[in-house]
From TrEMBL:
<feature type="transmembrane region" description="Helical">
    <location>
        <begin position="45"/>
        <end position="66"/>
    </location>
</feature>
<dbReference type="GO" id="GO:1990573">
    <property type="term" value="P:potassium ion import across plasma membrane"/>
</dbReference>
<dbReference type="GO" id="GO:0034702">
    <property type="term" value="C:monoatomic ion channel complex"/>
</dbReference>
<comment type="similarity">
    <text>Belongs to the inward rectifier-type potassium channel (TC 1.A.2.1) family. KCNJ3 subfamily.</text>
</comment>
<dbReference type="InterPro" id="IPR041647">
    <property type="entry name" value="IRK_C"/>
</dbReference>
<keyword id="KW-0407">Ion channel</keyword>
<protein>
    <recommendedName>
        <fullName>G protein-activated inward rectifier potassium channel 1</fullName>
    </recommendedName>
</protein>
<feature type="domain" description="Inward rectifier potassium channel C-terminal">
    <location>
        <begin position="155"/>
        <end position="320"/>
    </location>
</feature>
<keyword id="KW-0472">Membrane</keyword>
<dbReference type="InterPro" id="IPR003274">
    <property type="entry name" value="K_chnl_inward-rec_Kir3.1"/>
</dbReference>
<keyword id="KW-0851">Voltage-gated channel</keyword>
<dbReference type="InterPro" id="IPR040445">
    <property type="entry name" value="Kir_TM"/>
</dbReference>
<feature type="transmembrane region" description="Helical">
    <location>
        <begin position="120"/>
        <end position="143"/>
    </location>
</feature>
<keyword id="KW-0406">Ion transport</keyword>
<keyword id="KW-1133">Transmembrane helix</keyword>
<feature type="site" description="Role in the control of polyamine-mediated channel gating and in the blocking by intracellular magnesium">
    <location>
        <position position="134"/>
    </location>
</feature>
<dbReference type="GO" id="GO:0034765">
    <property type="term" value="P:regulation of monoatomic ion transmembrane transport"/>
</dbReference>
Amino acid sequence: HRERQRFVDKNGRCNVQHGNLGGESSRYLSDLFTTLVDLKWRWNLLIFLLTYTVAWLVMASMWWGIAYLRGDLHRAHDNTYSPCVANVYNFPSAFLFFIETEATIGYGHRYITERCPEGIVLFLFQSLLGSIVDAFLIGCMFIKMSQPKKRAETLMFSHAAVVSQRDGKLCLMFRVGNLRNSHMVSAQIRCKLIKSRQTPEGEFLPLDQCELDVGFGTGADQLFLVSPLTICHEINSKSPFFCLSQRSLRSEQFEIVVILEGIVETTGMTCQARTSYTEDEVLWGHRFLPVMSLEDGFFHVDYSQFHATFEVPTPPFSVKE
């Protein structure tokens, strides 16, 4: 059995790569801040270190250059001479002076004298440039660390979806759960059926997206995700699975993409979790095992049974049949 190529992986990563952008690649530079935030952590750390290292070396070289052009390096130990920066003898001392100024350490051993206008101008330039670099890079790192992507890892989806009867109707169901005690505010779930089809005009659509109704009209798609919930899609005449039977399921090829969105209660940021189910992950005639039990004064959720299913009598025919 060859593994099916997915549009969306089980962990929510979309298997789509953009290529041959041509001149459109410049759009990434026009939004440089978002581009840096979207980079992987190893590239962010590399850019962070390189930017500060290069900026430090360049600014230290400028302070050393001023001292060299004024002749301060040769008369640094002359007590009767007033240099631009006191106690700067070579490049390491110029580098240390820059670090003390940039980090506002202020040891008091090296300082700018009043007879150095070019040093005062360079000091002002260094302060402005340092503030800009700090705001840009530290802001980028803060936004990246506070992204709600990691919150999605504590939102669970069942490994498989099931088809069985509920209230006398054939339904496609899967389970979602929240591992944290903090809630997802305004949680909403959506489902997309991705399947290739051909239009009556002969146009072939390789990844046609069709909405699966999981309670949009009744408000059932608005979740109170305190305990694991079973999401239900009723298979009726309006469902794309109207002609789906247990036998035809073996020959079908489709993918159900599930999107769970909500606001993280602790941070107020919007979070999205995704997963997908291919046709071989849809179990006909199964139902999920219960995971809730009433203990001494509280409800207990047994997540060891979260993915477990059991067989139930289910007609093998489609709703149409």
